[in-house]
């Protein structure tokens, strides 16, 4: 059995805002991120008030939001990073008055949630830059060295003409340098 909790009242404290042309219409929109809620707003031209076009709960704590426009495009897209360890690219569809996910990419752990499924050995420096890099390039052996058996460590140290202790010290020094 799992327990899932939702609050009755939506979050009201706006943590971050961005502006952009998120629809094909030539009008400026405001996107607000508050807690787990994304809200797309626009200024009503005749009344002079701000109205909410769409409000969307992402079911994660939103850590950052940014907008970008691909070359040759007439609209802006939204990039959001959440505490679940994912980066999502969203587009606003004015016809359905909703957000559509273009891309969802796992990048590691951060914030409240400590691990991404399948990633048993989190980075000790609190950010897992190698996990995102390993999506494109195989993970460096140095980062996985401490998980190897003693026999494998001896074999690698023999090939490098160093002791296991010296290799572990170099890896520790490398991690300390990347942390600061």
Automatic annotation (TrEMBL):
Domain of life: Eukaryota
InterPro entries associated with the record: Beta-prop_RSE1/DDB1/CPSF1_1st, RSE1/DDB1/CFT1, WD40/YVTN_repeat-like_dom_sf
Signal peptide start-end: none
Gene3D superfamilies (alphabetical): YVTN repeat-like/Quinoprotein amine dehydrogenase (2.130.10.10)
Domain RSE1/DDB1/CPSF1 first beta-propeller, first and last residues per copy: 14-119
Protein name as annotated: Pre-mRNA-splicing factor rse1
Organism, scientific name: Neonectria magnoliae
């Amino acid at each position: 059995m799992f327990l899932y909790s939702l609050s009755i009242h939506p979050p009201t404290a706006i943590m971050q805002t961005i502006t952009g042309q998120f629809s094909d219409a030539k009008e400026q929109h405001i996107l607000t991120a508050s807690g787990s809620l994304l809200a797309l707003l626009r200024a009503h031209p005749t009344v002079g008030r701000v109205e909410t076009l769409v409000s969307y709960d992402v079911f994660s704590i939103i850590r950052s939001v940014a907008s970008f426009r691909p070359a040759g495009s007439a609209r802006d897209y939204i990039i959001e990073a959440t505490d679940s360890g994912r980066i999502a690219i969203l587009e606003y569809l004015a016809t359905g008055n909703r957000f559509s996910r273009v891309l969802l990419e796992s990048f590691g752990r951060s914030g409240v949630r400590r691990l991404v499924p399948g990633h048993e050995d989190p980075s000790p420096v609190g950010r897992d830059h190698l996990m995102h890099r390993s999506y494109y390039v195989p993970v460096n052996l140095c980062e996985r060295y401490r998980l190897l058996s003693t026999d494998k460590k001896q074999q690698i140290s023999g090939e490098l003409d160093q002791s296991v202790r010296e290799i572990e010290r170099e890896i520790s020094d490398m991690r300390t340098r990347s942390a600061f």
